[in-house]
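Renewal narrative, Specific Aim 1. Our central claim is that a sequence can be written position by position from structural information alone. The example that follows is taken directly from our test logs and has not been curated for this report. It begins with the structure tokens describing the chain, in the order in which they were read.
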């Protein structure tokens, strides 16, 4: 258990949070949420001991082992993958090194032999004899191939290193597990495996994530950083979000009678208690929600950007026809070959595939940013499109180092400053922030600028490559709703499970040997045995998407 009392953190005159009193107990999973800059990662660093609070106390029960998801992807470059995972249990790993050093020492004494025997006993009690097989199992479940287990870390790709570091944190059943954005770079099936793993985890989990689906699947409690404080609420993210919205609406309606408000709250709690039966943390959450007084929850101070894509004209019957399209990477690898499909009116297509570079290449080709190696694509005459790329530095280079008003004005027919300010204000660029130079924007600010550009241009066909990258939960929620309400067509890629499930009405999975084209919902798609068989045939082996 972790007990926090009167904890505060201050940088100069800025108080990040103050007078925080919390308890994190065994068997629960706590989801940490808050607006960008609220201090989510900073709070996790205090818990892990990486930084120290300004005031207050934090106590961890004696003997508890803590594991933390490392963010430095280059820390173990010279280590073998399997050894890197076992290093997650430092005491076990140190014992293993010490006893092996004794065995390898030709001049070892009788005293050394006795010490080795002691170490063997301790090693066995920790489960050390199963360490390699346990580490290998976690790696395989996370999608790291068996042939990569004995490679050096420096030989892996960036996304593979992320999975190894996650395996390191999960290894050895730590008493306290702290995870900052654990689903980054994970495919949908691996996220589901991780959710199942954490649901069965018997100890304490504290996780910060922008993945709403993941938070809903694993969390028994939400830790909300808001109002310069940190408060604990029972339930998953959806319960916290919808209850906060309900209370806000009730506060706005001053004429509503208290009894009517109480009935609304009780009905709300009962509905979520029933829905909890479908979640992975069902029993404990259902009991907790039934006892909950909704008055505990305070309306959030966070605001949601206004995002609405309104086409200037509705698309006609012909949207886009792609025939025999092919593209190879710089090293000659096949991204896609003889790709043929037609986009129809009303289509909202989620592109899937194990190679994100191939998906980006397809969107770049459709947007006209790069040429295809062969094949054709033909837009309908009524189609106007706009593209939100994942790699967007070209829009914000030093050569275009202007303030945000002039940056956005370039994409607008209406040049009036107040008009431009209005669009920037929708994305929370207000006051002097509109004079910020475009070259110094954060990742999230760049995406919000590109979304403003997209709204200004009023296309009827949207292309989006990982549009939720760098966005906070509030912006992701607004974007999700805008994409769902959009009356035109779109093609998008994302790792956000909820975005695909709620927006896409068609799924196209790209492989080097062909495509899988489906009208199933995303969850039906993931569960379909027929789709799995198609994928196996196309890849030649079973792989996660």
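The sequence written for that structure reads:
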């Amino acid at each position: 258990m972790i007990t926090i009392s009167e904890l505060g953190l201050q940088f100069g005159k800025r108080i990040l949070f103050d007078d925080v009193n919390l308890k994190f107990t065994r068997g629960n999973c706590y989801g940490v949420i808050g607006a960008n800059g609220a201090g989510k990662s900073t709070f996790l660093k205090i818990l892990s001991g990486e930084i120290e609070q300004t005031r207050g106390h934090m106590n961890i029960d004696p003997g508890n082992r803590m594991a933390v998801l490392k963010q430095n992807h280059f820390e173990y470059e010279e280590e073998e993958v399997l050894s890197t995972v076992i290093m997650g249990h430092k005491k076990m790993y140190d014992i293993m090194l010490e006893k092996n050093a004794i065995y390898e020492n030709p001049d070892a004494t009788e005293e050394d032999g006795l010490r080795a025997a002691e170490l063997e006993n301790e090693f066995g009690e920790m489960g050390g004899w199963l360490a390699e097989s346990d580490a290998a199992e976690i790696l395989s479940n996370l999608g790291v191939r068996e042939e990569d287990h004995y490679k050096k870390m420096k030989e892996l790709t960036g996304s593979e290193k992320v999975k190894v570091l996650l395996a390191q944190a999960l290894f050895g059943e730590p008493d306290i597990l702290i995870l900052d954005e654990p689903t980054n770079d994970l495919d949908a099936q691996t996220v589901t495996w991780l959710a199942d793993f954490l649901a069965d985890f018997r100890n304490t989990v504290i996780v910060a994530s922008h993945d709403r689906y993941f938070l809903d699947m694993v969390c028994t409690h939400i830790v909300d950083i808001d109002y310069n404080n940190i408060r604990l609420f029972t339930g998953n993210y959806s319960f916290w979000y919808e209850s906060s919205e309900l209370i806000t609406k009730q506060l706005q309606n001053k004429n509503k009678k208290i009894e009517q408000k109480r009935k609304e709250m009780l009905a709300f709690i009962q509905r979520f208690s029933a829905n909890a039966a479908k979640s992975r943390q069902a029993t404990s959450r259902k009991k907790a929600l039934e006892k909950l007084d909704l008055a505990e929850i305070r309306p959030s101070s966070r605001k949601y950007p206004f995002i609405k894509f309104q086409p200037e004209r509705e698309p006609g019957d012909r949207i886009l026809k792609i025939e025999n399209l092919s593209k190879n990477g710089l090293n000659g690898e096949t991204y896609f070959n003889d790709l043929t499909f037609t986009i129809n009116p009303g289509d909202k297509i989620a592109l899937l595939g194990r190679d994100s570079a191939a998906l980006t290449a397809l969107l770049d080709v459709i947007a006209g940013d790069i040429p295809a190696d062969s094949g054709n694509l033909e837009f309908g005459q009524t189609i106007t499109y706009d593209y939100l790329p994942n790699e967007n530095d070209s829009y914000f280079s030093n050569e275009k180092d202007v303030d945000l008003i002039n940056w956005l004005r370039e994409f607008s027919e209406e040049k009036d400053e107040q008009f431009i300010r209005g669009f920037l204000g929708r994305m929370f660029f207000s006051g002097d922030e509109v004079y910020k130079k475009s070259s110094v924007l954060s990742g999230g600010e760049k995406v919000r600028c590109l979304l403003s550009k997209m709204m200004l241009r009023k296309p009827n066909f949207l292309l989006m490559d990982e549009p939720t990258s760098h966005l906070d939960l509030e912006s992701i929620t607004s974007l999700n709703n805008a994409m769902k309400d959009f009356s035109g067509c779109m093609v998008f890629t994302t790792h956000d499970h909820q975005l695909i499930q709620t927006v896409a009405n068609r799924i196209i999975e790209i492989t080097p040997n062909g495509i899988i084209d489906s009208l199933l919902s995303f969850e039906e798609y993931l569960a379909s045995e027929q789709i799995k068989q198609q994928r196996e045939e196309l890849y030649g082996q079973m792989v996660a998407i």
